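Notebook p. 47: complex prediction with flavin-adenine dinucleotide.
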Amino acid sequence: MAGLAAAVRARELGADVVVREKGDRPGGSMRLSSCVVWRYREWEIFRAECPGGDPALQRAVWEGLDDALAWLESLGAPVVARETGNPRTTGLRFDPAGLTDVLVRRAGEVRLGEPLRELPDGVPTILATGGFQGDPELVRRYVTPEPLVLRANPWSAGDGLRLAQARGAALSAGMEEFYGRNLAAAPRIEPGDFVALAQVYARHAAVENIRGERFAARHWADVDVVQWTARQPGARAWYVVPDEALGEPVRERTVGELVEAARAAGAPVERVDGATRVEVVAAITTTLGGIRVDVRGRAADGMWVAGADAGGVSTGGWSSALAAALVLGRVAAEDALGYAA
Ligand SMILES: Cc1cc2nc3c(=O)[nH]c(=O)nc-3n(C[C@H](O)[C@H](O)[C@H](O)COP(=O)(O)OP(=O)(O)OC[C@H]3O[C@@H](n4cnc5c(N)ncnc54)[C@H](O)[C@@H]3O)c2cc1C
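Predicted complex, structure tokens below:
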């Protein structure tokens, strides 16, 4: 998202742009996502939900999102819903394939299969490689020694982090934090399963690790449960679901339907003491820590960083990574071309 948004904005402002894309298709994880681009309705709620983030950076994303969404729509990006499904948030849901196509058509030259390996001398560069969740070594170093399932594109492997650090950029807070989902522990998990196998009903279950130790937290959401699971043996846990919870609605499905999806995919699902137990495995979608940037996306001389490569927006919780990527990608392009805020 961030790189394409930056490229489209830079071209609008008259720049010649080359997008270097490591993958064999454009769109990165945005293309795989549910594509809900959102913000908290209230600024105070954003701060309370993500208390470890950089307030100035958060404010820039929060204040910039509505204009950025209107811009995406003006480009012809296909909106599939005008609600996020969460009354505390506001935003738009796009068709990810359609959004990718719209951006690619306007991004100028997009060179597929051409990873950026070093920063070009004297050319303003916006790094937007999508975080470091795709590099098991970096995940081990910063996040957890346990092996996580990758729930993202395979190419976002910390290239931006390394390039920016080599240029002297600093790291943000919260390098150990990530956003992800606990997925049904099926023997095979393909990108098409990333949404279908997500077990997003932890609040209706007891959550315990293989030793029977339970997750207990003061304030929690699915993002807290997956971060806890990631630190348990094998990055695995069991959800123990009482029968009365099986009919509870979760998004467009029920808890029972999510459990059946897990069983159908071959994940361990057992009946024990009158409850259903489902084995889950922690999957990483996006790292939340990364390069420290200012509100214009600046990370070092001649270098801007946007999207999941930039840390410090969601620290301590979760906010829309697509929103941050969209807003900061656009702002970085403007700043790189000398346009003031
Ligand atoms: C199943 C799923 C559902 C999701 N749902 C949502 C949602 O509803 N709302 C939300 O806000 N977020 C959601 N996300 C998260 C969101 O998609 C990502 O956090 C977001 O795409 C990050 O934007 P980005 O621009 O940083 O990275 P990406 O969109 O992944 O783009 C990064 C690009 O950089 C490329 N790249 C990597 N290394 C190099 C290199 N060295 N040179 C050149 N190119 C390189 C990658 O191939 C990729 O194309 C979801 C993710 C998944 C997987």
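Notes: The chain has nine helices and 16 strands. The pocket of flavin-adenine dinucleotide is lined by residues 1-3, 20-23, 28-30, 32-37, 115-116, 128-130, 151-153, 155-156, 159, 194-195, 285-286, 307-308, 320-323, 325 (CB under 6 Å).
Next step: compare against the earlier run before touching the bench.
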